[in-house]
Amino acid sequence: MNKATRLTTSVLSVAALGFVAACGNGGESGPQGNGGASGGPDSSEVILDDNGFALYTGDPQQGGTVTVLGGVDFRSLDPAVGNDGNVNNLYQLIYRYLTQYTYNPETEEMELVGDLAEDWESNDEATEWTFTLKEGIHFEDGSPITAEDVKFGIERAFDPSLAIGSDYLKTYIDGAREYNGIFEEPEGLDSIIVEDERTITFRLDQPVASFPAIVATPPGAPFPADQVDSPAQIADAPIASGPYKVASYREGDVLELERNEHWDPETDPIRPGHADAYEFLLSLDSSTIDQRMMAQQGSDVNAISSSTNPLQAANLAQVQQNPELAERTVRGLPTCTTYLGFNMTKEPLDNLEVRQALTYAVDKQSVVNASGGPLLAEVAHEMLLPAVPGREEFNLYESEEDRGDKERAQQMLEDAGYADGLSFTMDVRNLPVWQAQAESVQQAFSEIGVDVTLNVIDAANYYETIQNPSQQNDLAITGWCTSGWYSGQPLLEPLFHGERISDSGNNNLAQLDDEDINAAFDEAGVMTDLDEQNAAYSDINRMIMEQAPVVPLVRQTNLQMVGENIGGAYAHPSRTGYIDYNGLGLLEPGEQ
C-alpha cells in the first residue's frame, strides 16, 4: 500500500478534521488524563476568560460521583441512533472509537489522536484507509476488542432501523448506501476488510482525505458480534468499551453509570476517568436547574447543568454580578448555527420569492435577545462558521441593524401573489430558548401578514420528528454544529445536497435538491487540495443562500454552571462546544 498519510503517533490537525451533529442546546467530540495525553491544561487553579467565566475549573482528584442535572432524556443509548450534542457527549463515557479528539482550552489546540487505533495509513488517492488497533483494549466483560468487532459495529449501525444518527460512514464507505445492515445482509460489506485481529481496511467510493475524523463518529463504536442478536439490543443493553458502563436506567428519570473495570486507562488518551460514577438526573425544569446550581445545597456541589439546559437568560445578570458564580460558569464555544428551515416541498415555500421575502422579514436582533442577548448569541448571515478556512463573509439579505426589512418583504409577497397573507406551522423543540427564538420569528412574520402556529415537540423526540419528511411541517427551528471539522463538507453537504434526502434521519430539512448545487458538492467532495476545496465550499455557501432554503439566525455561546466541587470542566469544540463530560471529576472526592 502506498503510504501517502501515515501517523505513527496518530495525530492530525484540527484545521482539516472533525465531524458535526445536530445541536443539542438551543441542534455530529480532557484535560490532564492518564499519562497526561488528553490535551487539557495542567493547572490546579481555575482559569478565567476576560468576562470572568471559567475556561477550566481546576484539576480533579480520583473518586466520587459527578451528577448532571438535565431537562431532556437521551434519544437513545445506542450510538447509531442519537444525533445531538448532549447524547454524543454521553456516548464518550460509554463507548470508544478508532479515533477521537483532544483539546486544550488555554492554547485552543485540538488534535485527532488514536483512540482504539494506534495508527493508520491511506493509499495515494485517499480511497483506502487501514487502521491498526491497540493491544489491551476490552469490552466491559473483559473480551478483547478486535477488528472484527469494529466491522460488526459499523455494519450493525447501517441497519435501516438504526441509521438515524451521523451518516458519514454510510455516505463514504463503498456500497454502504445500499447496504441494509448485518442482520438483514449477514455476509457484510466487502469494502470493510478485516486483515487480521488488529487490522481493518475501509475502501471508500471517493477520495476522502479526512476519513480518520469520520471514524470518530458514534456509529463507529465497536460491538462483539457474538453478543448482539438484534438491532434494538444495544439501546436496551449497552456494551461498554469506555471507562463507564450502564448501572441502571429509568427513562425520563435517571441514568447511572459505574466504573468499567476492564477499561485500561493506559490505552486511552481521551478519557481520564476521574470520577467513579456518573448520575444523570433527567426531566428537570430549567428554572429548577438554575436555582439548584446557584444555591449549591448538599450534593449539588458535585453537579453540573447539562448542555441541553444552559443558564437561562433571566439569571445571567445575577451570575455576572457575582464573581463566585461566574467562576464556576463555563461559556460554550460558537460551534453551532441556529437556523429556520423552510420545507420546500410545501406550497408556497417552493417559490423562491416567498422564501426570500420571509428571509427579509426576520428580525435577527430580536432572535439574539430571545437567545439571551449579545453575550450569549451573535447574528448569523450564512451557514459557514467564521473559523472555516477559505470562508468569505457575505450577507445577501441585508437590513438596518439586522432588524429585518418588513416593507421589502411585504412587497415581495404581493409580487408573488400573496397580498392576503399566508399561514404556516412551525416545529420547535420544547426548550425555553428554542421556543423564545420561535416566538421572535413568529412575531416578525405576523408583521407582514404571515400567521405562524407553533408545534412544540418533546425535546427528546424532536429530531426523530423533524428528520422524517412525512412528519415535518412547513417550518422548523433547529441548528447544525461542527465538532472540529471546520470545512464546508460536513457543515453544508448533509443539509443541502439533494442526494442526502432520506425517509428518516434526514438532515436536509429544506429538501433542497438543486442540480447545480448537487454538482458543485460532488466536484468539491473529491478534491484533494484543501485550499481549493475550501474555496469551492465557500462558493457553494453563497449558491445555497441565493436559493434561501434556510434563514441563518444566530450562533450561540451558552453558559453551563458547575458545582463548586467540580474540577476538569471546560468547553470542548468536539463536544459541539459544550462541557466535555469526559474531563469531569471532583476537586475533593470526600465532599458531600
TrEMBL record:
Domain Solute-binding protein family: residue ranges: 111-501
CDD domains documented for this protein: PBP2_clavulanate_OppA2
Entry-linked InterPro entries: Peptide/Ni-bd, SBP_5, SBP_5_dom
Signal peptide positions on this chain: 1-22
Gene3D superfamilies to which the protein is assigned, alphabetical: Dipeptide-binding Protein, Domain 3, Periplasmic binding protein-like II
PROSITE patterns: PROKAR_LIPOPROTEIN
Domain of life assignment: Bacteria
Keywords recorded for this protein, A-Z: Signal
Name under which the protein is recorded: ABC transporter substrate-binding protein
Originating organism: Nesterenkonia rhizosphaerae
